[in-house]
Write a structure and sequence with these properties.
The chain is α+β, with helices and mostly antiparallel strands. The protein has two domains: about 1-30, no CATH class; about 35-150, Butyryl-CoA Dehydrogenase, subunit A, domain 3 (Up-down Bundle). About 60% of the residues lie in helices and about 15% in strands. The chain is built from three helices and four strands, in the order βββααβα. Strands 3-2-1-4 form a four-stranded mixed beta sheet. It is elongated. The model has no long low-confidence stretch (mean pLDDT about 85). It is found in: Cell junction, Tight junction; Cell membrane. It comes from Horornis vulcanius. This is Claudin. Belongs to the claudin family.
């Protein structure tokens, strides 16, 4: 009999009581607090991926033909778009590593508890941010491939 439904994330952990539907969320104390290495590394990977994706977007926008920045040198604009694809590819790989690593780690932790017949009254589940991180990183990777391989 499941008593509660637990959702773990990088920034908080929520527990929903299955009997009355009450949901409580605990924010992790601080970004700088002592956390397990897996959380710190995953946060670092995801934040770096976000920053790289933002940088790639800025470079891509400046490299568009309709933008008057460096209008007289189309070769440089093409290199900017190519560079944006490379930066976006690096960010997408970091994002995929971070989100997949965290998802696999939560799954392995749950599987280990089940294999040792330890029941905590908790059902582990992935949050939306985990799935969105994987989907967004995959989309960025596809865009990176298109920018680097199909750009003329």
């Amino acid at each position: 009999l499941q008593v509660s439904h637990k959702c773990r994330g990088l920034w908080r952990e929520c527990v929903t009581n299955m009997q009355d539907g009450v949901r409580t969320c605990d924010q992790y104390d601080s970004i700088l607090a002592d956390h397990p290495v897996k959380i710190v590394v995953t946060r670092t990977l995801m934040i770096t991926a976000d920053l790289l994706a933002g940088l790639a977007l800025a470079a891509l926008v400046l490299g568009l033909d309709c933008i008057t920045f460096l209008k007289e040198d189309p070769c440089v604009k093409l290199k900017m778009c190519y560079g944006a694809g490379v930066i976006l590819g690096a960010g997408s790989i970091l994002g995929l590593i971070g989100s997949m690593w965290y998802a696999v780690d939560v799954y392995v932790e749950r599987a280990m508890l089940v294999s040792h017949n330890i029941f905590l009254g908790v059902h582990y589940d992935f949050g939306w941010s985990c799935w969105l991180g994987m989907a967004g990183s995959t989309g960025c990777f596809v865009a990176s491939v298109l920018l680097t391989c199909c750009l003329y």
